[in-house]
Amino acid sequence: MSDSFVLQLPLEICEEDDRVLTVRFMSGGCLYNSCLQECLKRYDLMRQSQGYRKACKLPKKSEERISLFKEAKALYKFDEYKIHVWVTEHLKQFPYREHLDSTVCQTIATRAFQAVQAYAFGKRGRPRFKSTKRMRSLEGKSNATGIRFRDGYVFWKGLKLKPIYDTKDTYGVEAHALGCSVKYVRLIRKVVKRRVCYFVQLVLKGKPICKYSTPKVTVGVDLGPSTVAIVSECGADLSLITPMKDKSSRTLQRKIARSKRLTETVTQRAKRLYRELAEIKRKEAATRHRWIGNKANQVLSYGHIIKIEKLSYKAFQKCFGKSVGRHAPGMFVEKLSRKAENAGGELIEINTYQTKLSQRCHGCERCEKKPLSERFHRCPCGIEMQRDLYSAFLAIHVKEDRLDTSQAEKAWPCAQSLMRQAVSRCVETARDKHERVRFGFSQRQSCSSAKGA
Fold it and tell me: For residue range 6-32, what is the model confidence (pLDDT) as tens digits?
């Protein structure tokens, strides 16, 4: 598959276009529910068959098991292209068929099938039916038919939609993107400040323009549920992934819960609170997305080869649910990997169980387990450093899941001064006592001027 990236532009919509698009998105929601119902029906029948049950009892990766699964799928037509055939027949009786074209209908069917397929593989729960107002995107399969982008406009079944371009384009992002060929076009529907807005996403061939220079060195990254430590020979940093708090949303959630307790029905006040909460969550998601992108760019400003421990983000969700929901470390790693590849580098994941970087010391090569509350590495050999920064420093010198202590010993004097500067900056910029405790900067550990005073 060729490289691709996305350019999103807002659309200039009049009242007539808004009315037409509203009907088409509602039609897409109705068709999605029909496809989802058909996919679930075929999957449930397949699960009840004798061949499928027999295959589940056989050992994994056995040839008989694989063949039985294939026979069950073929018998009950649980396949993406069989769903496309069903959609073609269903459209003849579908009341809104004049609002959608065949390529959009096929992509909707693919979306429903993939949701059921992920449920079949145990990757997610049973998919639910959507309200017709909750259909947020419609896309085509190519730029030749259906939703098309031509001569700076979006065309779709009689509609001609004008994107709003950035007239300044400081870094030349739009100019570079519009010079690439378009794979397919996606329309997005969002509610921003109680107003429906539409956007177009152009899925383009090639790689996005790089707005920053990346030195050709290795970077060590230590990631937590809400924090990230960065160390390289160019510098070091210790900070939160996103400096976000959820005080306003928690206040609204308490008001909604109080309203539910007092009244058995959903009042007008409760509906207004739900709309306010949805707007706050939308702003939080946009802010999180922006901050994670900035943090990934900051990591790449230290180097292009990134070494990070391989972590289980599902375990993070179980142990640190609220913090993970607010800072999204998994999204950060995903975006960092994509940006590193675009910059000509790569992201290397280190085996945590073999290296045990948070327990090791490169000076005396001892390995001692520490509780999570102990945020500073202190060793009898004299090495003392903030635990996350020290783990990121050790990650630089891991080769084939083994720590090279001799290289770490050579780089330690220079890296130690950089990490101490990062600790000082973090102490100065910590906003409250909770943030100081998160990094381990109590008065006894901070080594700040307040201690001497």
Answer: 999 999 999 999 999 999 999 999 999
Segments making up each domain of the chain, as ranges: 4-205, 218-242+292-452
| Helix (H) / strand (E) containing 408 | helix 405-429
239-250 tens-digit pLDDT:
889 887 767 788
Give the Cα separation of 196 and 303 in Å (integer). Answer: 41
Summarize the confidence of residues 284-303 as an average pLDDT: 92
- Could you say which DSSP state residue 171 is in? T
Q: Are 273 and 321 in contact (CB under 8 A)?
A: no
Q: From its phi and psi, is residue 448 left (phi > 0), alpha (psi between -120 and 50) or beta?
A: beta
Listed residue (332, 339, 356, 352) closest to 305, CA to CA: 339
Cβ–Cβ < 8 Å for 230, 336: no
Tell me, yes or no, if the pTM score tops 0.85: no
CA pseudo-torsion sign 26, 30, 32, 33 = positive
Q: Report d(CA 267, CA 291) in Å as an integer.
A: 36
Task: Give the C-alpha separation, 422 to 441, whole Å.
Answer: 13
How confident is the model over 173-198, as a mean pLDDT?
93
